[in-house]
Amino acid sequence: MQASVIGNPVATPAHVVSRFRRLCNVRCLLVVFVVLGLAARCRQYLSTPSYWYDEAFLMTNVFEKSFGQLIGPLDHEQVAPPLFLWTLRALYITLGPGELVMRFPAMAASVAALFLMIPLARRVVGSPSWIVAVGLCALSNHALAHAYQVKPYSTDLLVTELILLAALVYLDGRRAGVISIFFAALLGPWFSFPSAFVLGGVSMALFVNALRRRTRQVWLTWAGFNFTVLLSGLALWLVAARYHNSDYQRTAFGQFFVDLSSPIAAGSWIVQCITNVGHYGSTGIGVPLLLFSIAGVVVLWMRSRTVAALMVGPIVLALTAAALKQYPFGDRLSFFAVPCIWLLAATGIGELIQRLNVRWKWAGIGVAALTLLPGMLRTSLYAVRQEKVVQFREAFEYVRQHWQPGDQMWAGHPLVYRVYFGAEPPIMDCFTPGHAVEAAARSGRLWTVLPPRILSERYYPVLFESLLAAHAVPAASRQFNGIDIVLYRPSSAGE
């Protein structure tokens, strides 16, 4: 049988796979992922979008509290670890309140987490599928978003990776690993509250390792590590964390606690929760990540039960805390666990490709490519275009430019103004009594800085009732992204 025509060899499946592998050389893919991830992060960070209200809630604490006060309870129901807050406070004192300054810790943590995923994935997933985990990290929508927000979620991501890598170095038998895990146990919780779950996963992995090796030194290391975690955690709880375990937090994040109404409801909640964790890390592919992660758990269990415990432990402990209503596990609060999902999913994808015969390997490679494609398209877009955000800064600057003596302002989120321009002039908000708003609208010009009216009328009915009672009429308006500005004046002014 003739296998080829002169000068035109037949493209068999083996040849197709070989060519695809050459085109998708791991090093080339690594460069592509890293460059895209860095470009998108830098593009959004350097564009200095306006602070949003949740950032303002945190920053008013940083701007107005001392280092000592930042350890205690925070205003506006905010939750953040002490060393993260101290870093922000130090930057504020030395360099000021600008967006680039205050967002630098989050940006630095996001970039560091991207590069740290490379050695971490190499150790957990193995070659060549480790590149999938790096791709998931580089192209993650929320790893990008949290890189330019004054919140601790990028730090959670980085601390998780640091702790996992420190544990793997120790499990490799290196002396530096002992120092690394104890250092992580001592400082990790002070930089990232949910790192307690990751440290718990390390404890589980060290226990499995001790059962396997059965040496006195290994058992002593495990005991000493646990003692250090408990000591650091207890100190953190006494001085800071206990203030954040409030009724408000349990109510506001109630949907992120396990539904214990029935075993079926609990099981369904857990499956949905883990799916949402993957979806939060890589929007659009939560279900595939869950399926590949399950396969990854099985593969790692067969390879190394110690590493499997290290990857699964943080998620199991966080779910346990959610069942006890001690920690809401979901949305941005679960971002610390996303690296475990990425690593497990990459392991499952790698095993799928490896087990397929030559004829079908292209299908496995296609699955991996499709898993990364949504993030690739989204990250490419944000590498060249600024993401749309609510333009609080631009809206308040417009009001200040057109401000006249005697004017007053009603804002949906006055703390954003306070972060940018200080506490003057006093701004009315949803806590201002209706009669005070009505009096202000009767006496002179009143600016309103609100979300689009279709939302404002639902959330701020007292304001519009007061404007109606005062017979105030719109004199001018201006729209910004996510913000409507309306200048009201007494109706008698135009008569």
What's the layout of helices and strands?
Blueprint: E1 4-5, E2 8-9, H1 13-23, H2 26-46, H3 53-64, H4 82-95, H5 99-102, H6 104-124, H7 130-138, H8 141-145, H9 153-171, H10 175-191, H11 195-213, H12 216-239, H13 247-252, H14 263-281, H15 286-303, H16 305-323, H17 338-355, H18 361-384, H19 392-401, E3 408-411, H20 414-421, H21 434-443, E4 446-450, H22 453-459, H23 461-469, E5 472-480, E6 483-490
Parallel strand pairs: 3-4
Antiparallel strand pairs: 1-2, 4-6, 5-6
Helix pairs in contact: 2-6, 2-7, 2-18, 3-20, 6-7, 6-9, 7-17, 9-10, 9-11, 9-16, 10-12, 11-12, 11-16, 14-15, 14-17, 15-16, 15-17, 16-17, 17-18, 21-23
Folded structure, characterized:
The chain is 65% helix and 6% strand. By secondary structure, it is of the alpha+beta class. The chain has two domains: 26-384, no CATH class; 392-494, Translation Initiation Factor IF3 (2-Layer Sandwich). The strands form two sheets. Strands 3-4-6-5 form a four-stranded mixed beta sheet, sandwiched between helices. Strands 1-2 form a two-stranded antiparallel ribbon. Strand 1 and strand 2 (8-9) form a beta hairpin. The longest helix is centred in the middle third of the chain and has 24 residues, at 216-239. The radius of gyration is 27 Å and the shape is globular. The N and C termini lie far apart (99 Å). The relative contact order is 0.10. The model is unreliable at 1-11 (pLDDT under 50).
